[in-house]
Amino acid sequence: MPNRRNAVYSLLILTLLGGLFTGRAFFFNMAYLFAALLILSLLWSWASVSNVQITRQTRARRAQVGRPLDEQFSVRNAGPMPKLWLEVRDHSDLPGHNASSVVPTLLPRRSYRWSVRTTCVVRGEYTLGPITLVSGDPFGLFQMTRHIDATSRILVYPRAVPLYDFAVPTGVLSGGDAQRQRAPYVTTNAAGIRDYSPGDSLNRIHWRSTARKDRLLVKEFDLDPLADIWLLLDLSLESTFARPYTYEGGLTKDLFIPPSSAEYGIVVAASLASYFLVKERALGFATHNPNRTVMQPDRGNRQLTRIYETLALAKIAHTMPFGQMVALEGHHMMRGTTAILVTADPSDGWVKEAHLLVRRGVRVIGIVLDPASFLPSAGVRSGEETRRLLEGGGVITYLVHHGDDLTAVLSQRR
To answer: Of 140, 156, 306, 381, whose CB has the highest number of CB atoms within 10 Å?
Structure first.
C-alpha cells in the first residue's frame, strides 16, 4: 500500500514538473487528477472506519476449563456510504480465543453478524477486547484504523472432573442428634408438619395428615447430624513441582492440565468441592495464595462459586510450609471433623501434623501429588513413600501421578 501511494506521489510530481517546463495543459490536468485521487482515497479511507457500530455480546462472564465460551458480534454500517471491506481485529488475551474477522461489503444501514466459540483451556481472569477496525479505499492507497477501547472481564474456573465413589466421610456428630435447623431439602430427620406453601415440592406432602385435616400439609426436616469437612490446599512455591510447558500444545484439548503439581492440586480441589457441595455437605476451604484464605463450612452453590473463584485466581507464591498451615487451620477442627489435605510437599512436617489430627479424633484424608512424576530430576522423596508414612498413622491416602485419570484415581474407595 505505501508503494502504491508513493507511485502516485511520483506521478503527481512528474506531471507538475512536465506542466511547468512545457506549459501544456495535459500535464496540469493529469496532476489535478492524481491530486484528486489522493484526496478522494484519503476521505474514503476515513469514511470507511467512521459511522460503524460494533456490538459484542458474551453469553456469560464465567466459564470453566473444558467448556466453551460463546460470543456474538454484530457490525452495522450507520453511514451513507458503503463499506467495501472492513477488518475487525480483536485483542483479547484469553488463550486460543480468535474473534477477529473480515467483514464483506456492507451497504448503508446493513449489518453483518458472526459467532465465535472458544474452548477455555487455562484458568484465570482475562480481558475481552479492545477492538481495532481497519479499512481503506478501493485503490489501496490509504489504510485507516480506529481503536475501540471498550473491554470486559471474564473469569475462567478450573476444570472439575466427575467423582463417583470418593471416601465419603461418615463423621456423625457426638450423640447423633440432629441439628435444630430447618433444611430446604429432604433429610432423614423429620421435624414436623406445616401448611403447604407455593413452591413446595410434592414429595414433601404428608398425605395422611392432608387427608385427616382436609388441607395440604408438608413435612419439615432438620439438617443431618454430619460433621463438617475441611479442604486444605497447598499452593506454596516450595511444594510445587513442574516441568516446562507451553499452552500451544493444549489449545485443541479441552481437558488439558498443565504438568504442574499445583495445577493438579487445583483441579483436585475443584473436583472435591463440587462433589461434596452437590451432595449438600458442609464444606470449608483454606489455602494461602499467597494471602491466607479461609472459608467457613457452608453448603450450596454460593460456597461452590466462592471456592471456584478463589481457585481461578490462585497464584503460586512463597508462603508458610504446608505443615504450619495444617497446624494453624487444624487447631480449630473438632472431633469428628474430616480434613482433606492436598499437597505435593515431600517433607515430614505436614505428615506429623496429619498424625496429630488423627490422634485428636479428626478423620484425615491425604491426597499426595507425587513430586517425582512431575519433576523427575527434583531428587525428592517419592509420593509412594509419603503415602506409606501417612497410612502408618491412620491417614486415608490417595496418590496422584502426572498424567493420571483423576476421575479413576479419586473414585476408588479407600
So the answer is: 156
Under 8 Å between Cβ of 304 and 270:
no
Partners of 294 in the β-ladder: 286
Whose grid coordinates read 513430586?
Answer: 371
Which CATH number fits the domain that encloses residue 252? Answer: 3.40.50.410
- Asked whether the beta carbons of 188 and 178 are under 8 A apart, the reply is no
Does the residue 173 lie in any domain?
no
pLDDT of 256-266, one tens digit each? Answer: 788 999 999 99
47-61, 183-197, 397-411: least confident range: 183-197
Angle between helices 349-359 and 322-330 (to 10 degrees): 20
CA distance 331 to 201: 41
Residues 186 and 105 in one domain: no
> Tens of pLDDT along 123-171?
999 999 999 999 999 888 999 999 999 999 999 999 999 999 888 665 4
| Full residue range of the structural domain in which residue 136 is found | 52-157
What one-character DSSP code corresponds to residue 141? -
| Residues whose CB falls within 8 Å of the CB of residue 186, separated by 6 or more in sequence, listed in order | 201, 203, 204, 221
User: What is the rounded distance in angstroms from the CA atom of residue 372 to the CA atom of residue 375?
Assistant: 5
Residue 167 belongs to some domain of the structure: no
- DSSP symbol at 197: -
Place of cell 472506519: 49
Contact by Cβ (8 Å): 27, 56: no
Residue 244 located in a structural domain? yes
Residue 211 lies in a domain: yes
